[in-house]
């Protein structure tokens, strides 16, 4: 299955790439596909601003956040103030009351 996905991506890129600069593109897609599966959950990704990001499409994605490699998180922390999210909810997630929500607090909140 993985080799088929890699071959399809390579063929698609080859058809679109007139300059023949494929090696870097193919290697980035291989790296992306190899990191797509974390634990038992299969993650879906999208590209935003040239960066690959994990899509949180369902409650199942949230339940498997503990399996997601921290290198794949878009942000490692966020403040509890001045966001367009209810401050009371953010205060509940910020269990150590340091004004920042970090990965372990998000994981604990969804479990």
Question: Can you put this structure into words, describing what you see?
Answer:
The chain has helices at 2-16, 23-34, 59-63, 87-93, 103-110; strands at residues 37-38, 41-42, 44-48, 51-55, 77-79, 100-102. With 111 residues, it is an alpha+beta fold. Residues 1-6 have low confidence and may be disordered.
Give short descriptive properties of this protein.
single chain; 111 residues; alpha+beta; two-stranded antiparallel ribbon; 6 strands; 18% strand; disordered N terminus
Order of helices and strands: HHEEEEHEHEH
Strand content: 15-25%
- Over the alpha carbons, how many angstroms does the gyration radius reach? 18 Å
Termini separation comes to 31 Å
Widest sheet, order of strands: 1-2
Helix proportion of residues, in percent?
Answer: 40-55%
Our count of helices gives 5
Principal-axes geometry comes out as globular
Q: What structural class is derived from the secondary structure elements?
A: alpha+beta
Q: What's the overall average pLDDT, rounded?
A: 78
* Largest sheet: number of strands, sense, barrel closure: 2 strands, antiparallel
The residue ranges in which pLDDT falls below 50 over 5 or more consecutive positions are 1-6
Number of strands: 6
Offer a concise description of the structure.
The protein has 111 residues and is an alpha+beta fold.
């Amino acid at each position: 299955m993985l080799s088929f996905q890699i071959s399809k991506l390579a063929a698609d890129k080859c058809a679109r790439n007139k300059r023949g600069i494929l090696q870097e593109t193919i290697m980035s897609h291989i790296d992306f596909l190899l990191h797509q599966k974390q634990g038992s959950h299969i993650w879906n990704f999208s590209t935003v601003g040239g960066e690959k990001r994990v899509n949180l499409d369902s409650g199942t994605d949230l339940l498997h956040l503990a399996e997601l490699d921290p290198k794949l998180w878009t942000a490692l922390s966020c403040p509890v103030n001045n966001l367009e999210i209810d401050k009371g909810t953010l205060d509940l997630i910020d269990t150590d009351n340091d004004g920042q929500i970090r990965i372990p607090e998000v994981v604990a909140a969804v479990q």
